[in-house]
Every structure is written in C-alpha cells, then in structure tokens.
Amino acid sequence: MFSKILIANRGEIAVRIVRACRTLGIEAVVAYSEADRDSLAVQQADEAICIGPADAKRSYLLAPAVISAAIVTGCDAIHPGYGFLSEDENFAEVVRAHGLTFIGPPPQVLERFASKEATRRLLGSQGLATIPGSNGMLRDDLHGLEEAERIGYPVLIKPSAGGGGKGMRMVRTPRELEAALKICRSEARAAFGDDSLYLEKWLEDNRHVEVQVAVDRFGHGVHLGERDCSVQRRHQKFLEEAPTPALGEAARNDLAERALRAVVAAGYENVGTLEFLVDTAGNANFIEINCRIQVEHPITEMLTGIDLVVTQIRIAAGEPLGFSQADISLRGHALEFRINAEDADHDFRPSCGVVERYLAPGGPGVRVDSHLFSGYEVPHFYDSLLGKLIVWGPDRPTAIARSLVALDELVIEGLVTNIAIHQALLRNETFLAGEMTTNLVDRVGAAAFLVAGAR
Amino acid sequence: MPNRDEAARLAAHARIGVLADELLPALIAKLGATGLGELEVREGNWKVRLRRPADGVAAGPKVATGRGSKAAGSHAEHAHPVVTPGPAHDQYRSAATSPAVGIYHPRPEISSGSRVRAGDRIGTVDVLGIPQEVVAPVNGVVGAGLVESGDVVEYGQPLVWIELISAPAERTGRDA
C-alpha cells in the first residue's frame, strides 16, 4: 500500500480523496493552484504544495508541475480525481516513468479506452449493443454529412476526448450539421486540445443509465449496480439517482452483468463506469466508458456501503478486490443533487463570490460532500460545483421526502445557487413518476420547471 | 514646460543610476558587516535607506516537505502544513519568486551584494531535471536569501530579496 498520495485536484473531490487517504492511514498531500490557497482541501491535507497560478493549464493540467510536486514531497502515488488529468493516458505513462503510481487504470488500459469511438467498437465486439454511429472519426465536413445521412438524422456530434457537454451538439438537418461541426471542433480543441469528432444516432426520448464496475489486477471484477443520470441540462448531469426508475430489477441486473462481462473481457482494470442510453422500449445501448471516479459515485456508496475511492486506491496499489459479487447488496434508494453556483434565472450563468453563511443539512441518510465553509471565496477560474447533497432512503418516496427536508435545511448565502431547481424537480410529476429523459429540462426549459415548482 | 520636466526626469534617473551603481553595494556590505538594523544616507534631495528584514532572516513560506514521516492517521499532531508566503515585496525590496515547484539552485556567480537588473537570471528551479529560470523582478541589489541551494520550493515562493534602489529614493525626491 502507498504511504503518501499527492492529490492533483481541487474542490469537493480533493476533500473526498483526503478522507479516503485518512481512512487507509495514508498521508495526503494536496497540490493546489494560487487561487485555491485557502481551500478546505489545503487546510485538511497533511501537506499542501502550490504547483502554479490559477489558470488550470499552468497548474492542475500541467503534468510536469504535478509530478514534480509528487516527487519533492516524497509521494508514491498521484490521485487525479475527475476532470483535469484523470483520463490522460500520456500523463499516466509519464507518472509511471517517474516511478510513481497513477491511481486509476494502468496507462496501457487507459490507452486502450482513450478514444470513445474505438471503445464503442471494442465493447461492441464483446457483446454490448452500441448506439449506431459514424465509422471512425470524421475526416472532414463531407465525411460528416455522408455518415449522418447513413445513420439517419437527428444525430449527436461528440468529441472523442473529454466530457461535460463541451463540443456536443444535436442536429436535425445537414445544414445544422455543417454549422455545428465548426463550433464543436473549436469547442473541443479549446477544452481538450483534441478536435476529433464523431457522430452518434440521437435517440429522442432516452434515459442515461450507467453501470459502476470495479476490476482488480487479477481480472476479478464486480459491478455495483447502476445509476440513472437522466436529469441533465445541456448534456450536463445535475441530479442522479439509483436504482434507475427506468428498468425493473431483472433488467437492471442483466444490464450490469453484461457490462461487467464485457469490460473484464476487454481487459479493464480499476473502478470505471459504462454509460448507456436506454430507449423507451428498455433497450440499453453502450455509449462510453469513464475510466475514473465520477462525480455521482456517492449514490452507489450509499446503496452498497462500499467506499469507491478507497477501492480505487487499493486496486491501483495492486491489492485484490477482497470481496465478490455475492458480498454486494444494493439497499434502498439514493439521490444526489449537484449544488452549483449558477443563476437559473439568468441562463444558469455561473456566480462567484464569498460564501457568507454555510449550513449543511443532516439527519438519517443525509450526506454532504462539499468544500464550502463560511467565509470561503469561490474562485471564478473553475467549474461551478459547490458540493453534492446525497440522500438515502429505504425506498424512493422516503428518499425524496428526506431530500426535500435536506434541501430546505441547506443554507448557502452570498452566492446564487441552483437549490431551487432541485426543489422544483422533486415536486415535478414527471420526475416523481420516474420518467425523466435526458433532454426534457432543455425542451421544457428550466424556467418552466422553476415556475411549476414554486406553485 | 514639458521639456523641462523631461530634462529633470532624465537627470533624476541618471542620478539614481549613479547611486545604485556606486553607493548601494557599499552600503549593503556595510550593513552586512555591522549589527545595524537600518542605514540611511542623505545627499541633496536624495535619501537611501536600507533596512534588514524584521527577524534578521526573512521568514519565507515553508514548503510542506522534508518534515519527516509521521504516524499515519495522527494528523491532529501535524504542524499545520499550509503556510501563506510573506509578501513578495514592500517599499524597499522585491523578492524573486519561484517559477515552478521543484529544487532551487542559485547561480554561483550571484551573491548578496550583486547588482542585478529586472529580468536577469539569478538561479534555477529544477522541475523533473529541467531547469526553470528564476529572474530578478526589479533592478536592484541581491539581498538576503530566503531558501538554501537544494531546497524544495513551491510555485510563487519568495526565494531571494532584491533590494530596491530607485523607487523609494525617487519617491522621496518628488516629495521634497
């Protein structure tokens, strides 16, 4: 096992990883940018070291700075969290070349799953149904038009790298496609330094369901059930729950087992998530794999009682999983609310400033993963996630009832947050019926949800 | 009028240059040799004042490393790891700061009392074997070092003071 881990991330996930390190008796060093000098993770860490200025390209995304910080502080492993360098196979390779361990899949595994389009074909060959899409990356606009014609409109343009909805556009006509390709290409280049795009068939009413897996170095793998992330705004998840209301128990089990078999056969290692789009008939089509810890991992922890970050560290250290599928039971229902500093009344514009007052909710089944504290100044350089409220109940109605109480208790003053839209969703008939689809919030408009919720 | 102002300004700058080149190195050597905390020299409209850091050697930020291994899980006993760097400049001096996280090496030919200009290389920080240049932020004279050669330094950490020559003197000149 490692003795000292460098955490190359910020915000709530840096705090989460510090906690996992403490649990394992490992020292935690937080690498931070100048903008995060006063952050909670820096305060809680055993050690902290400044790696660069606020601009992430010169700090959290700068591989030499991160690795140098790990070496000079005597760390033996680097935890990249999510985003930033977490799925960069070149970074993982350089980390290994310096005698350190990358906490995630080994570099050769990351490389195998680096291209989303190639991964879709790889797992397709392992028996997973995949969503119809372009053959390979789009060479140029003409190739894009031909492929879209073959797949059939509407299609979704997706970048090969990255996530978070950047460089993604749904188009219904060739004219829209031509215009959107240019935008997506420049967005993808700016966000991920890679402008290769591919196409996917757009399913009108789909649910986003993802399967959490954990596979150790010895090829022993388990699934930890699925999560439903159908509540999205512009391809960004903001409310997740497990189990998914979209599928019955047998279908859920079947999907999770097929997903696990396919990734184990494809040689995956460490924790990972396979994302599927489920159509109205209940058919699950594989779209992509995330080779890292995900923002929404806590709802799986609430259902299984398994610490996924600890599991991730143990697998990276070469330890066997230590439990089998038979040891895993999924209990009750959990919801996660991403609390963002954004203004729903003004097109979800990010807000920043000083947190004048912060009060976290409590009670049975309530968990808050956040880096906030009263007096904390939210820097404007990074994403708007302030934290996550995770609520568990023995069943979905209880979890929802507890969530309403918890959201009501949560106090964040000094910033505009999206708490109101969560409260509105929990009173929305479509959500209560478990029938949210990924584009519903955008189609109806967030404002309409808010107005309906306020009544 | 503008011409006379311009001429006066140029004359003032020339005077500052002479002060900096001739007077300051001598004064810094003198301050170093004595136990004095502060030295002030007046000449006409000009005044040059040198002052030692309050605690003899300025307290730079301690990079969170080299503190030895501790019993895991006993973080309550840990010295607080987060140290806010002292200000990197004041009225009299400006610190050269680290461009990266790594190991610091000053240039051997640069030592306390050396005259430097803004942008001059005064040392390097080794990042994975690749040296990153440490440059003087201002014109001045190299003063007290805040870290030792071979020390681990973090990004933005003050490494060595550069004692200012022109700014305070010029300010005083205008006030007079």
In words, what does this structure look like?
The complex is a heterodimer of chains A (455) and B (176). The N and C termini of chain A lie far apart (54 Å). Chain A contains 16 helices and 22 strands. Chain A is of the alpha+beta class. The longest helix of chain A has 19 residues, at 174-192. Residues 54-84 and 167-176 of chain B have low confidence and may be disordered. Chain B contains two helices and ten strands. With 176 residues, chain B is of the alpha+beta class. A four-stranded antiparallel sheet of chain B has the order 3-10-8-5. In chain B, strands 7-6-4-9 form a four-stranded antiparallel sheet, with no helix packed on it. In chain B, β6 (121-127) and β7 form a beta hairpin. Chain A binds chain B through residues 3-4, 22, 25-27, 29, 31, 34, 37, 42-43, 45-53, 59, 64-65, 67-69, 71-74, 98, and chain B through 63-65, 67, 69-70, 72-73, 75, 78, 81-82, 84, 100-103, 127-128, 130, 152, 154-157.
Task: Please outline what is shown here.
The complex is a heterodimer of chains A (455) and B (176). Chain A has 455 residues and is of the alpha+beta class.
Quantity of strands of chain B, as a count: 10
The number of helical segments of chain B is 2
| Proportion of residues in β-strands of chain A | 25-35%
Per DSSP E runs of 2 or more residues, the count of β-strands of chain A stands at 22
User: What structural category characterises the helix and strand content of chain A?
Assistant: alpha+beta
Reported for the largest beta sheet of chain B, the result is: 4 strands, antiparallel
H-E order of chain B = HEEEEEEEEEEH
Radius of gyration computed on alpha carbons of chain B: 19 Å
Q: Specify the number of helices of chain A.
A: 16
Helical residues, percent of chain A: 25-40%
Query: Low-confidence spans of chain B: pLDDT under 50, at least 5 residues?
Result: 54-84, 167-176
For the sheet with most strands of chain A, the description reads: 8 strands, antiparallel
Calculate the mean pLDDT score of chain B and round it: 72
Oligomer: heterodimer
Strand sequence of the main sheet of chain A, in spatial order? Answer: 13-12-9-10-11-14-21-19
In the sheet with the most strands of chain B, the strands line up as 3-10-8-5
Largest interface: A-B, 32 and 25 residues
Taking pLDDT < 50 over at least 5 consecutive residues as the criterion, the unreliable ranges of chain A are none
Structural class of chain B: alpha+beta
State the separation between the terminal residues of chain A, measured CA to CA: 54 Å
